[in-house]
Design brief:
Elements: H1 10-13, E1 33-36, E2 42-44, H2 45-50, E3 54-59, H3 69-72, H4 75-80, E4 82-84, H5 92-99, E5 105-107, E6 112-116, E7 130-136, E8 148-149, E9 154-157
């Protein structure tokens, strides 16, 4: 028979009826992420080809998981959350590993992640401008229970 510690009842650790001290363990946060940087609200196809543009993800509620191995394990998932609504043959989705190398996903501080786009001469959109949405995986945000769709979207426009 296992020992049950009666002091570990969940109600007691959230300060039920103010009779017990709170433990300091935060509840799950419903985070939201705002996109800024030099890719927003639009950037040109030629600017993606030359690289150096940035996508800045700012958490308004919550914090990114700690820097180091924990965050490094989530960089690929963060990069994979940058998705174009279009299916261009040489567009963002097809060239993602070149345009967004994992090393370009950097935790700037507890609230900000900066993604710097690498140069990619093979990037090309022929049919329509690409509308890009960023979905942040919940595992990259402390105490978050579901993926977070960042706002606003941004557009990569055709060179004319």
């Amino acid at each position: 028979m296992a020992y049950i510690d009666k002091s570990m009842v969940a109600e007691r650790h959230i300060g039920r009826l103010n009779r017990h001290a709170a433990t300091g363990i935060p509840a799950y946060a419903r985070s939201n992420v705002t996109i800024s940087g030099t890719c927003t609200p639009t950037c040109a196809e030629s600017q993606i080809v030359t690289g150096g543009r940035t996508i800045i993800l700012t958490l308004n509620i919550g914090k990114w998981i700690p820097a180091g191995s924990l965050f490094d394990a989530q960089r690929t998932a963060i990069r994979n959350g940058v998705v174009s609504a279009q299916a261009e043959a040489a567009g963002l989705n097809a060239r993602k590993t070149t345009i967004l190398p994992v090393t370009s996903v950097v935790r700037t501080n507890s609230k900000v992640v900066t993604i710097t786009l690498a140069a990619d001469a093979g990037y090309s959109i022929a049919v329509a401008s690409e509308v890009v949405t960023v979905t942040v995986p919940y595992a990259a945000i402390e105490f978050c229970k579901s993926n977070v769709v960042a706002t606003p979207t941004f557009t990569i426009v055709l060179n004319t």
